[in-house]
Design brief:
The chain is built from 10 helices and 8 strands. It folds into 2 domains: 211 residues, Alpha-Beta Complex (2-enoyl-CoA Hydratase, Chain A, domain 1); 48 residues. Helices cover 40% and strands 13% of the residues. Helix 2 links the parallel strand 3 and strand 4.
Length: 278
């Protein structure tokens, strides 16, 4: 039986999801895509998970699409090909409830997961690996990591919504630079751009990521995390007034929740919180 291409581990309210093709720098195949979606859904539905860590096995985060697995494309007769069938084979929908349609695509569904997703980028994040990292909520990188869009160097385009997401993370000029040049950047340049929030020595990466994940899992309300994540991604499509109205509605709902009562109680009683997510 073949080894799973995605590993799942849960402990201490944290799920760790690991791409597991280290001999191929965790390059993406259709099986890996399917297993990744299943692992993310599992973490979202698990009552004992509050935070998700996403990383790669071995010395890479994700080197992009496995070009050997896509070699069948070279044999396609584009004069007679059924483009609908090709689209379905290459770009599978990822249905998620209660979110914008754009967040239900092959790689864009991470924002639809109602728990924080922290990318622990331990090595190259290139091409589709770059895309995956962009849809995570927070990115932390090892000092051995590197980043590149790669698409222009393959005769391709800004895939899977990258033209929408990347400028929102690093600004228009930086996004165009990374897309046009397809150059590889080191993690320190990525940090200066705002692509990653922290760069740490390779040997300390997972310790730092887990420490931050534990902070989220133990000191703040999981309900607050879920609502705020949804607010932030919905606000991209809203004007200021709509965002304020959403906030006002959510604030009133929070007052009726157990986590609000606990948030006040643990502060006044000067003790660690015991949030339930309710």
């Amino acid at each position: 039986m073949a080894d799973p291409t995605v590993l799942y581990e849960a402990a201490d309210s944290i799920a760790t999801i690991t791409l597991n093709r280290p001999d191929r720098l965790n390059a993406i195949t259709k099986d890996l895509e399917d297993e990744l979606f299943a692992a993310m859904q599992r973490a979202e539905q698990a009552d004992d998970v509050r935070v998700i860590i996403f990383t790669g096995a071995g010395r890479g985060f994700c080197a992009g699409a496995d070009l050997e697995a896509l070699s069948w494309l070279a044999g396609v007769d584009w004069n007679t090909a059924d483009e609908t069938e090709l689209r379905e084979r290459l770009v599978a929908p990822r249905p998620c409830k209660g979110v914008a349609e754009g967040f239900q695509k092959t790689y864009s569904y991470f924002p639809a997961i109602d728990k924080p997703i922290i990318a622990a980028i331990n090595g190259p994040a290139v091409g589709l690996g770059f895309v995956l990292s962009m849809y995570c909520d927070i990115r932390m990188a090892a000092d051995s990591a590197c980043f590149g869009t790669a698409f222009a160097a393959r005769g391709l385009i800004a895939e899977h919504g990258l033209s929408w997401m990347l400028p929102r993370l690093v600004g228009l000029s930086n996004a165009l630079d990374l897309l046009f040049s397809a150059r590889i950047i080191d993690p320190h340049e990525a940090e200066r751009m705002g692509l990653v929030s922290r760069v740490v020595p390779q040997e300390k990466l997972m310790d730092e990521v887990r420490a931050y994940a534990r902070l989220l899992a133990t000191t703040v309300s999981p309900r607050s995390l879920s609502v705020m994540k949804r607010q932030v991604y919905e606000a991209i499509f809203q004007d200021l007034g709509e965002a304020i109205e959403t906030a006002n509605t959510e604030m009133l709902a929070s007052f009726h929740c157990e986590d609000f009562a606990e948030g006040v109680a643990h502060f006044l009683e000067k003790r660690p919180p015991r949030f339930t997510g309710k």
